[in-house]
Amino acid sequence: MEIQVNDVSKNYGTNENQVVALNHVFMTISTGDFISVMGPSGSGKSTLLHIVSGLDQPSSGSVLYGGTDIHNGNDKTLSAFRRQKIGFIFQQFNLLPVLTARENIIMPLLLDKKGVDEPYLQELAAFLGLGNRLSHLPHELSGGQQQRVAIARALIAKPDIIFADEPTGNLDSKSSGEVMDLLCNIRKKMNITLVMITHDSHIAKIADRHFTIIDGKLSEVDA
Ligand code: ADP
């Protein structure tokens, strides 16, 4: 499904306190794209990710998924759309500490009142090297393992697109490399679109299309 970000701006605050977090952003994301968005802290990366994924509303402009404006519907329709079509990976993993790895992974399905595709869960766990870790609590896992649980959770509902917010920001360089390799391989295998924000140029280079954002202005590098 093609995503079109059409002249999106986002302002926070009013008058002299106003911050322009996104400044007339245009972006077209095609099915299967692997995109990195790089920029310094405060440049608007998270704001962009939140608006393109429907977690936040733009001040102006639109975000179209297959021609439909995702911010036009009600909150319920948008949340259901997000749960079914979009996976999220965060810097801080965002696992629920009292749930096992398996329970964390299947949480999106429970929220959507869907059954678990057990062979698919086992396949994901094996691919991510989590086969013997599913009954562990997050604090019993390394950072890299926790992020791999979060990747499995992002993939469990078989989404079309994954948004990753500094996916390696909390990992040492060895775990970062492992997590990025797994993410790249699984993305290819499942033909999933991946949009990743990072401030790390080495990680950004792994993507196929590279964007930079500075003071809310987005541009594609080597387009
Ligand atoms: P990045 O992810 O690149 O660090 P952000 O998208 O978080 O940047 O922030 C872009 C700008 O918008 C920054 O100046 C930030 O302070 C501001 N900003 C972000 N969220 C809010 C908010 N909820 N209220 C006010 N200003 C915000």
Characterise the protein shown here.
- The chain is built from seven helices and ten strands.
- The longest helix has 18 residues, at about 175-190.
- Helix 6 (about 175-190) links the parallel strand 7 (about 160-165) and strand 8 (about 195-200).
- By secondary structure, it is α/β, with parallel strands linked by helices.
- Helix 5 packs parallel to helix 6 (about 175-190).
- It has a six-stranded mixed sheet with strand order 6-7-8-3-9-10. It has a four-stranded antiparallel sheet with strand order 2-1-4-5, with helices on one face.
- The chain has helices at about 45-50, 75-85, 100-110, 120-125, 145-155, 175-190, 200-205; strands at about 5-10, 20-30, 35-40, 60-65, 70, 85-90, 160-165, 195-200, 210-215, 215-220.
- Bound molecules: adenosine-5'-diphosphate.
- The site of adenosine-5'-diphosphate has 12 residues, from strand 2 and helix 1.
- Adenosine-5'-diphosphate binds near residues 12, 13, 21, 46 and 47.
